[in-house]
Amino acid sequence: MSDQTSNHDLSALDKDMLSILRSNGRIPIDDLSDQLGLSCTKTREKLEQLEQCGYIKGYQAIVDVDRLYTGFNTYLLISLGHQTANNHRRIEHFVLNEASVIECVYLSGESEYLMKVCTEDIADFRELVTKLYQHIPDILSLDNKPVLQTIKSRTQDFTDGTLALQEKSQ
């Protein structure tokens, strides 16, 4: 496998390993090898191969953002005055350097960006919006959608080519 390997080149065993790791990234290697029917040595080799090829970018905890950030949680829809490379770079730079921005996606349609923002309170949110306008002066509109309640959150697993959902209800 090389860095250019596509998902279609993953074996069924690779997909099984990725699926197991998506649901439990802290699984001991001996438990993982048991579930896959491999020796610990072969499991480590396959794991290292998936890491080197970029299928596994790292290991992290799935944090309940709504529980962690109990202040002011909102979604921002951002429309730009002009779709320029410079504006997109400015947004990316802002998002990557602003801890209050939990998630950001680039959209098709009326608004270009959707950001999930978690601040301590409304005063911190106002400060964030001020910084956003200062950093990206070509914002045409900014629409704020405060989160009243998270009804469902899901983790996606595409390892087998289909969408499997792990649901969390509140």
Please name the defining characteristics of this protein.
170 residues, 2 domains, single chain, two-stranded antiparallel sheet, alpha+beta, Arc Repressor Mutant, subunit A, Tscrpt_reg_AsnC-like, disordered C terminus, Alpha-Beta Plaits, 6 helices, 6 strands, disordered N terminus
Description of the molecule:
This is ArsR family transcriptional regulator. The strands form 2 sheets. A 4-stranded antiparallel β-sheet has the order 2-3-1-4, with helices on one face. It has a two-stranded antiparallel sheet with strand order 5-6. With 170 residues, the protein is an alpha+beta fold. It is 38% helix and 25% strand. The chain folds into 2 domains: 7-52, Winged helix-like DNA-binding domain superfamily/Winged helix DNA-binding domain (Arc Repressor Mutant, subunit A); 65-146, 2-Layer Sandwich (Alpha-Beta Plaits), CATH 3.30.70.920.
Envelope shape: elongated
Supply the number of structural domains.
2
Helix content: 25-40%
The percent range for strand residues is: 15-25%
Largest sheet: 4 strands, antiparallel
The total beta strand count reads 6
CATH architecture term of the largest domain: 2-Layer Sandwich
Q: What is the average per-residue confidence, as pLDDT, rounded to a whole number? A: 85
User: Roughly how many Å is the radius of gyration?
Assistant: 20 Å
Largest sheet strand order? 2-3-1-4
What is the CATH H-level superfamily of the largest domain? Lrp/AsnC effector binding domain/regulation of amino acid metabolism (RAM) domain
What would CATH call the class of the largest domain? Answer: Alpha Beta
Order of helices and strands: HHHHEHEEHEEE
Here the CATH topology of the largest domain equals: Alpha-Beta Plaits
Number of continuous helical runs: 6
Report how far apart the termini are: 41 Å
